[in-house]
Amino acid sequence: MAADLEAEVLIVGGGLAGAVAARRLAEAGIDVLCLEQGDRPDPRSYPGRRADGELAGLGPWHPSPTVRRAPADYPIDDSAAAMKPMLFNGVGGSTVLYGAQWMRFLPSDFRTRTLDGVGDDWPISYRDLAPFYDRVDIDFGVSGLVGDPAMPDHPAYPMPPLPLGAVGERIAAAHDRLGWHWWPGSNAIASVPYDGRPPCLALGVCGSGCDVGAKSSVDRTHWPRAERHGARLITGARATRLSHDARGRANGAIFRDRTGGERAVRADVTLLAAGAIGTPRLLLASPSARFPDGLANGSGLVGRRLMMHPFSRAVGFFDEPLRSWQGHWGQSVYSLEFAETRPETGYVRGAKWNLGPSGGPLGAALFPWPGEPLWGEAMHRHVAAWLGRTAVWGIICEDLPDPANRVELHPEAVDAHGDPIARLVYALSENSRAMLAYNLARAEESLAAAGAYRTLSVDLMPQFGWHPLGTCRMGDDPDESVVDGFGKAHDVPGLYVIDGSQLVTGSCVNPAATIAALALRMAEHLVATRRDRVAQR
Amino acid sequence: MNGSLLPAHRRTLRLLADVIVPRTATMPSAGDLGLADTPVDQVLAARPDLVGPLALLLDKLAGEAPGLAVPRLAAADPAGFHILMQAIAGAYYMHGTVWRLLDYAGQEASPPPDDGGLAVAALAVRMAASPKRFRRIPDEEPRTPAQSAPIPSSASDR
Q: What interface predicted TM-score (ipTM) does this complex get?
């Protein structure tokens, strides 16, 4: 197919990683073109403040694409997945809907094989990434407090932490008494005016888009700058396969535009930033005579080692009104007390806890109370007990990479254009189940220590698969990894994976900061090696 | 389905709604609020995706004793039950009367407090002074401590 578009660097996906790369490359004067299958979000359409905001969040603003089924959402079969993926397709990607909890991976996350005999060590370390964490903290505008003893030292965040709220203060005091770790939340949410963004108004609606503009999403923080520097962003453009030249060098992509017609982009370098489901789907959907198993798949690991962060919540009920529906939807407090391996727990690795607002009345009514009906007198009782009087710990568990957990092309199902859809196969390990049970029990202890008269938790909330990761892992050995430490494909020159697919392990902390730091590091690598690359043409 | 329910659907919905939302000493029932009329239309206006599935569900449940239909649906058809709950609980918890009774005014803008400080600063200082809790990597030197900001106790510390 003849290309009608050309660029030095093609980026597939206008979300977190794509935006970070586009901004830096465009600032360096590199000609960047990005294909984004969704549209530019319109903050005026965000439903959080409306009376029907909760209801909209269960339908057209649901974070699961299989529930939301917006025109930009590519079909995913997650029926064989114990965790269901959550993501957003559009300019800004999942940063439009995320909670903006902003955490660095722990040093141990990069050395799980060495320290715990599980997973794999990364080809890079925390030290390699630390300078890029420092920079993305500024670029995204993070509020928080330095000095956390559970983290290595790092420069101050550009903004002070957001208010902890009445619930957060109780939890802080309780953990102080228990001797357990707690720390004011770090969030990519403005606590003071910052870089043209107003401070957070504590509406608690981040999950369906921040119409205030306080939450950092890359449609606001990165794309405008990238475009001012000449980056081109084509929306409504769904990449269907990648192309390469006769020597096996990646040279662009084929995509469908809004009309459904196929077009082609030629590029010297192709960066995949379509997420840990979209990126392997695209690689697997791009076989050729030279690469019969899909592009960059010499190791057979494209799509393998899917990690999803098993998740659940523990809830504490308090007698007095705390207005706990208010507050930013990031983390007011987090705890890494059980984030590292502790021999007495019976499992390896750990979980992170984050405290957030408890939501409105509909969410209270629909929460799956164990052993109780959700209707009748019970519904009234649940809402009266919950609304404004609860503290909610979210529990994020690190899951270990397992090649059996995977993204693959569906053997039969195709999308409206006849392209194979992605299918997820994902099971929880016994380690994850033990980790969830242990942490939920400890979280209920935390809430009781904070004064809760009652606590409850559910074993697993399978619909909260916020963090698909790891499906094109990085590594030094081409037989055991898809890309190298900069995200460069071992098998295919000119091709990089720059999103959460490349993560070797998943940590228990939210991955946005790490994905952003990796993308920035890769972009700096591309800038630094540009002269050599141009000379080789 | 053109975005609304037929009269027969509303009759079934009315019966089911009073099982899901009965009257209590402090809260009105679904029937008290006429939930199957304008309120459910407001739900369907916000969620047109529910109209077709809800109508199909109500067709299936028509004639069934509502007191038995609701628990049976919850046990046998969780997806269908979720559709019904979104319609009925959704309408109920969007209703102004219910909000007033719950002392809930929706998600209200709440600008940051003027003092801006960390109310539990002393606790944070104590935590910060506790031993490092992350695992050291054997072959890695810790990064040189970078500039770190004091823990703010008021806006003037920023």
A: 0.92
